[in-house]
Amino acid sequence: MESTDSQAQALRFQPQGARAAGQGNAFAAEADDASAIRYNPAGLTQVHGIQSVVGINVLGGSVKFTSPTGLDSRGDFNGSVNWPPPSNFYLSADLARVGLPILSPVTVGIGLTSPFGMNTRHPVDGPFNTAVTSAALPLIAIKPTIAYKINEDLSVGVSADIYTFASFLGEGHVEQKQISAGALGIPVGASVELNGKGTGAGVTASLLYTPVRNGAGKPIMSIGLVYHSQAVLPLSGSLLVNGAKVADASTDLVLPQIVTGAVAVWPVRTGEKEWKVELDVEYVGWSSNRNLDVRLSNGATIPQPQQWNNVPVIAFGTEYKWLSPQWLPHWDVAVRSGYTYTGDPVPDRTFNPATISLSAHTLSLGAGFLCTGTGRFLGIIPCSGESALWPKGIGLDLAYQEWFYESRTVVDNLNPTVNGTYHPFVHLGTLSLRTLF
């Protein structure tokens, strides 16, 4: 068996809410709904009452590979769409609005996201089948969060980031399959699977500063700073050959620290219209991913050098919103667009087709609809009710992204079958449902 990569190094899945996705993921300085739990926990102090956001992402595309000899192969994301689909859920509560006025500066929340990894699948008889035939990382992050408003202009927030696996998502573990090249005494051509699961934790700390407001007290400029700590997940699982377990396996997955700085400006913000532009810049510390050596219970070790590099992520987004326009009273209607540049952290020598690790340019479009008052959602459901059990508003946010990857030619890889040119194509649709209580 050649050196194998357990797909645990899978790159970040950035769209974690349709409002942000429609703006190219530039949301850390706005962060004014429950998805602030992911983008900037301090922003939760702007979210009044109780609010929930439920989102789902539908992702499709393919990866075309051309070997140095001209042989073509094509992989996908476990089918025409990635399954299970990356999803998210957020719930926040303004403690003053839920009967605890003594805690009026405090907002709490809980989030559930799919922050890393997508399923990939390549032909079993493909040119690099000794590197990977399929891989999956159904990792989830559980994020209990608290935010505190220091004064009208400054808020801080912190969340625990609990990374783990759940049995209802795929196989409930990280998994990679490949065909043996004959190493470690495993017969040439045998089906090989490495899998594992575990739990680790990190922390996110953030602030939101609003130096300029309009006469109604709404932000005209906001600045966000967010720090996600490094997290280490000890993974334990099995090495399977032709479906039979031959050894226990373990490794340590290191997730990177991430530092984000963001600024949002509203050139227009009146009682009728709002226009926001935002720039987010991230530093992603992938250099902490030095190796993913797999330790086997029979005493052998499968070396997996990574030697990844730190990279930037730059996101620019804008949103234009009509507030209860005459042509659609009791509704707020928004249109959004954005652009994201994501750097490539993986050197040629340790590149693995299990992960789409190429520089990417993402274009985004989105729209949002928030219904309140006497409006009716979908023309049928009342958007607001007198009962405490009925929401005061219902919102629907939609976004579409095209990920344009720069073609990459890999040379001098540790597994020579991986050498060649890769042309990925990815498109994503995302939907979020907001409810306000």
Could you describe the 3D structure shown?
The longest helix is centred in the first third of the chain and has 4 residues, at 18-21. Helices cover 2% and strands 52% of the residues. The strands form three sheets. The protein has a 14-stranded antiparallel barrel with strand order 1-3-4-7-8-11-12-15-16-19-20-21-24-26. An eight-stranded antiparallel sheet has the order 5-6-9-10-13-14-17-18, with no helix packed on it. It is built from two helices and 26 strands. The protein has a single domain (18-436), classed as Porin. Residues 1-10 have low confidence and may be disordered. With 437 residues, the chain is mostly beta strands.
- Main β-sheet, spatial strand arrangement: 1-3-4-7-8-11-12-15-16-19-20-21-24-26
What's the order of the H and E elements?
A: HHEEEEEEEEEEEEEEEEEEEEEEEEEE
- Kindly provide the radius of gyration, computed on alpha-carbon positions and rounded to a whole number of angstroms: 23 Å
Within CATH, the superfamily carries the name Outer membrane protein transport protein (OMPP1/FadL/TodX)
Q: Please tally the β strands and state the result.
A: 26
Beta-strand percent range: over 45%
Overall mean confidence score, pLDDT: 90
Count of individual helical segments? 2
Secondary structural class:
mainly beta
- N/C terminus separation: 56 Å
The CATH class label is Mainly Beta
Q: Helical amount among residues, as a percent range?
A: under 10%
